[in-house]
Amino acid sequence: MEGALPEFIAAQMKGIVGIEIEIETIDGKWKVSQNRPLADRQGLAEGLSAIDRTAAAEMAELVRRYSKQ
């Protein structure tokens, strides 16, 4: 919005509506490349393990764990 005319910003602001939604339940799916060939899953786990981040290492472990099933 930097550089936009004040009139343009004012017109856009009129179109913004805020809502609030109460979340009662959340359903999710567990997806760690189980549908991929074993070689793909192994490559993914190796690639994730090479990343210096805790979340990547945790994801790599999940891919390895669910690749055994």
What descriptive keywords fit this protein?
69 residues, mainly alpha, 0% strand, elongated
What does this structure look like?
- The protein has 69 residues and is mostly helical.
- The chain has a domain at 31-69.
- It contains three helices and no strands.
- The protein has helices spanning 6-14, 38-49, 54-67.
- Helix 2 (38-49) packs antiparallel against helix 3.
- The model has no long low-confidence stretch (mean pLDDT 89).
Number of strands: 0
- The structural class is mainly alpha
What oligomeric assembly is this protein in? single chain
pLDDT averaged residue by residue:
89
Written as H for each helix and E for each strand, in order along the chain, the element string is HHH
* Cα distance spanning the termini: 50 Å
Largest sheet: none
Measured as a percent range, the helix fraction is 40-55%
Count of helical regions: 3
Q: Point out poorly predicted stretches.
A: none
> What is the approximate shape?
elongated
Gyration radius (Cα, Å) is 22 Å
Strand content: under 5%
InterPro entries: Split_barrel_FMN-bd (IPR012349), TR_PAI2-type (IPR007396)
Protein name: Transcriptional regulator
Organism: Rhizobium tropici
